[in-house]
Amino acid sequence: MSLLVLALSSPASADVIYDDGHVYAGDGPCTWARAEVSHGGGGGYTRSDVAQDYQLQTPWGSYDCRDTTPTQGAGRMALRYDWYYWNGTEWRICGVSDWHYNPQTSHSFAIAWDFGANPLCGPGYYGTMTAAFTLNGTEWLGGPLWSGSHYLPA
Known about the structure:
single chain; mainly beta; six-stranded antiparallel sheet; 0% helix; elongated
């Protein structure tokens, strides 16, 4: 299975299930992620995003992570996804991506895959678990984010 690395894209269908938010919010840099599942070509579409922002530090204290659009050098943001399928009893991994790293200096990047007309593991509910990290010196900061689930095929 190959993977398409994208800066921006949108699925072919209007039925999109996703979640987004900070998967790491500490002193200094914060890591934001987005996990998506949709119909795509009918058999499913997944997208994962990562971005870095910072806590606002003032003499009066620090504030929640803000979109201050800092940039990260190439290779300093990492993404992957696990494609899950509900088998009627439990969530099982149906497919996984390799780790992907931002190819150039940027604020964010995304990876996506359209599974075509037929769901990879047959008809049922699917979801994306995104793993999103940013590098702060020598430490990777981030974590997982679940998209929610969507019934496929469309």
